[in-house]
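Batch manifest, entry 17 of 40.
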Amino acid sequence: MRGRRVAVLLLVLALVGCDTAPSMNAEAVRGYYDYEFTLAREALRGDAMVGRDRNMLLDTVRLGMAALADGDLAEAELMFGRAFDLLSTAGLNADRTTAAILDHEGVRVWKGDPFEQALTYYYVATAHAVLGDWENARAAAANALFRLTDFGGDVAGGRVRGRAPGAPPGRDYAAVDTDFALGFVMQAIASDHAGAAGRDAQLRAATSIRKDLAGLADVIRNRDYDTLLFVDHGKGPVKLSFGRDREVSEFWPYEGYAGPLIASADGYDVARVHAICDVNQMAHDYRWRNLEDVRKLKSGLGTGLFVAGAMVASNSDDSGTALAGAGMMLAGMLLKSGARADTRHLEFLPQAIYVMPLRLEDRCDLKVRVKGNPNATVVLPDFEPGTTRNPRAVYLRIHGPRAPAPAWLAGDDRRYGNDHTGVRPGDYPWILGGRDVSTPSRAVLEAYQAGGHLRGLTVRDLVNLYRAENILIGSGTERRPGKPRNPSFRHILEGGTGLFTPEPDSMGYKRIMSRAHPRYVPRSNLVRNLAGRTGSRYHGARALARARALAPSQEVHP
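Output type: structure tokens
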């Protein structure tokens, strides 16, 4: 009889010992913080595209943030559109404060803490702002301004105590207006440029939360800018669990306070702003967090059930009573297991977020730096501003002092011609030995021919050269069955199969166009034979005809 009880106890312990910690895509996180945003996107794309597991929203937002930093606005818009729909879907983890008792906080799909949700809406708005779609930017920013749960400020040791003033009967908390100043500022900017009402009221809301934003509000109200920089800096807080059953979660700062953001044009400082959002501070505020009390209740009840069940099972010689005790132990351990805090979080969030309006008027070499971090300097050579009526919005992702600082970050090299810079005099396609990666067009071909190259060729001839190399024109265009999509999102300069120009002055654009890449090695006989004649100015129609004669099948070698 006692052997049966021991067997039951061992079975119970085995059943409840199978708790697994939430997974983290380490490859994506490592690539993101090495400025290798394309690598991060490749590590995320499969899971984000499938979108059927408990991390589908998390992976979607991660991929959107990486694509935005990488300058691929098409993928960023696609991912953020999905994220917006998922966050706005009624019934998705509808109320974590009540559903938490049902199944591991009621979390089947990660939706994030409230501050992560608000920041996701902000990034949706930012992507639309960079695209110049101010109406959708306004709508996204408005969604970030949801009401918060207030516990009256009586929070100590991770435990909510007391009852908030104004709390309705039966509740210890009350709904209060948001203090998300960044959301109000973004909504004010977007409303102004979308021609919608509300700009002044939104700016008043922002300055009532942060008095120091009065100067920024004046610039926005007067439209005294032709450029808007949305800048992220550093690595945001990490979410850890602790307690007897790991039932308490807490966000801990990974990096500390960031100094002001400073911009200079052609060597002269033109603007200085402080962070409008400190994500460490936001994550520490319990109004922006989910409830912990239900998890603690589950932990306490589980411990009590387990202890009581163990006493019943070990002190009884009756098999039915022993099994009942084992059942109590199992129920207790399942409760304790369900009490474990969910430590999944959005690892790509920054520590500090800046909004910087600039009045530049003319092209300039623009330098942006975060004071106090020698690794946080970005140089944007020959930067083209917008206008006061139609300002240019640019998003920059700058990492903190713990991240590497690649040479291209602060360099002013313009190594490769592209769709933004145009073909430089005398240049020709990179796949033929030149330094230009513009997508084929009549204007591009005429620029090559003006420099003495590819004379007699047509635009179709130029396109066919890329086709012979299995190079796809445009990012993310691979749709053929059985063909992997990742290489077409990766630029040909970085070993991929996509010929495109990322969003100018994005971090992806800087990385791809400002650092040296190995010389291209043709894979087809057609391009290989033609490239062998690009050392001179004789590589036009006659050279193409000879290359075709040497490779009539346009055979492609891997």
